[in-house]
Amino acid sequence: MNRKCLVGGKTIAAIASAVVPQQGSIGIVRVSGEKALEIARQLFYARGKQIWESHRILYGYIRHPQTQKLVDEALLLIMLAPRSYTREDVVEFHCHGGIMPVQQVLQLCLELGARLANSGEFTLRAFLNGRIDLTQAESISEIVSANSLEASQIALAGLEGKLAQSIRALRATCLDILVEVEVRIDFEEDLPPLNEGEISKEIGEVLGRVKEILATAQRGELLRTGLKVAIVGQPNVGKSSLLNAWSRSDRAIVTDLPGTTRDVVESQLVVGGIPIQVLDTAGIRETEERVEKIGVERSRRAAAAADLVLLTIDAAVGWTNFDTAIYEEVKSRRVILVLNKIDLAKGKEVKYPAEITKVVKTAAAFNEGIEDLEQVILASVQGGEIVAADLEIAINQRQAAVLTEAKIALEQVVETINNQLPLDFWTIDLRSAIQALGEITGEEVTESVLERIFSKFCIGK
């Protein structure tokens, strides 16, 4: 892998903070590389006798290097190599928030010899310069995009190196086994016989741990990306009331008139550490009214794209033929039946298709049954249970795919040993497992993989 090709020009610059007009109080321009300090000295005027040294914050002004025209009042952070995010010389201009100050400062940095950073290039340099491994780099991206406290905690655990430590330990064991096997191949007559039972036990332990880590993939993906939940049903069954009660807001208009909701109304929640995007849809029914018809079609599309459908009916009315028609449309998804307006049912027993096994009773207008609904949702995910707080590490999709390759290779080693094949055959799959484990941490990784990972980062990270 050509690291110079990946890094490109020597000095990079980018806006490292969100730029929102009239919202941000501080705007940050980050510069990394051999010209970083030189650029800072040309742009920044430090008042008084402040000392230009690493890990100091200077107060002063940013001026145009030729005209000396004032650009902004600012702070300058100096972090010299190797004690910086990228292990290169890094400076940060902390300007007033807003579009104009940071854009002017960035443009001046580019005019003085820096180039605009690529997506994730600061973090890529941190990886290439050995400050972090690949799992830590991915965790940085996950911290930025976390939608729940639990997702943030898992990302922080990855940043601390908990996943990398486990993977490196497994890889080290495989390397030790490979050395033992290869030594016996080259110097069989000079060494005692290989203890195949002990080798099989060690590989079995590695394989077991690989499977344990793989088991965190689905739960980790849920905590990172969340669930999309669609509330569907006939008009006037209380879908909007259910959304309002669940989100503790008045996002949806609630009236006694059927067909009030004409479009999909969205709310963001966190349940059991899982981000949930809740979609309140227009009541599904046959209609010739043009606007409502568009809303009904959007409801059908929302239900088709949802991970989970809350099929809501009026408990006082009971299950109808219209509910059967809606159920036929959504039953390919994971479905929870919500018997709403249970307060009006007066003990009436509601009959519904026997194949529906998850049922919740609610009185959304009185905020009743919401906790029960959340528990059933959590129980329906992963076949029963999510304990977010117990997840110390959770791998992402890329890591899961590579770790699956390692699992398959280790299973092949076990099969090779059981079939009493020659030692040369052992080494083939051992090397494959070692290669795959190295790809997770970045010890074995291609340029194309790095480009794919870091292209998902924001430019200033």
From TrEMBL:
Catalytic EC class: hydrolase
Keyword match Magnesium: yes
A GO molecular-function annotation: GTPase activity
Positions of K(+) binding: N236, T255, L257, T260
Keywords from the named record: Cytoplasm, GTP-binding, Hydrolase, Magnesium, Metal-binding, Nucleotide-binding, Potassium, tRNA processing
Cofactor requirement: K(+)
Domain of life: Bacteria
Binding sites annotated in the UniProt record for (6S)-5-formyl-5,6,7,8-tetrahydrofolate: R30, E92, R131, K461
GO cellular component terms attached to this protein's record: cytosol
Record domain TrmE-type G: where: 226-382
Subcellular location: Cytoplasm
Family annotation (PROSITE patterns): G_TRME (PS51709)
Principal subcellular localisation of the protein: cytoplasm
Example of a GO biological process term: tRNA wobble uridine modification
Binding site for Mg(2+): S240, T261
Cross-referenced InterPro entries: G_TrmE, GTP-bd, GTP-bd_TrmE_N, GTPase_MnmE, MnmE_dom2, MnmE_helical, P-loop_NTPase, Small_GTP-bd
E.C. designation(s): 3.6.-.-
Record: residues binding GTP: 236-241, 255-261, 280-283
Cofactor comment: Binds 1 potassium ion per subunit.
Protein function: Exhibits a very high intrinsic GTPase hydrolysis rate. Involved in the addition of a carboxymethylaminomethyl (cmnm) group at the wobble position (U34) of certain tRNAs, forming tRNA-cmnm(5)s(2)U34.
Known partners and oligomeric status: Homodimer. Heterotetramer of two MnmE and two MnmG subunits.
Family, as annotated: Belongs to the TRAFAC class TrmE-Era-EngA-EngB-Septin-like GTPase superfamily. TrmE GTPase family.
Name the record gives this protein: tRNA modification GTPase MnmE
Species assigned in the record: Gomphosphaeria aponina SAG 52.96 = DSM 107014
Lineage: Bacteria, Bacillati, Cyanobacteriota, Cyanophyceae, Oscillatoriophycideae
Gene designation per UniProt: mnmE
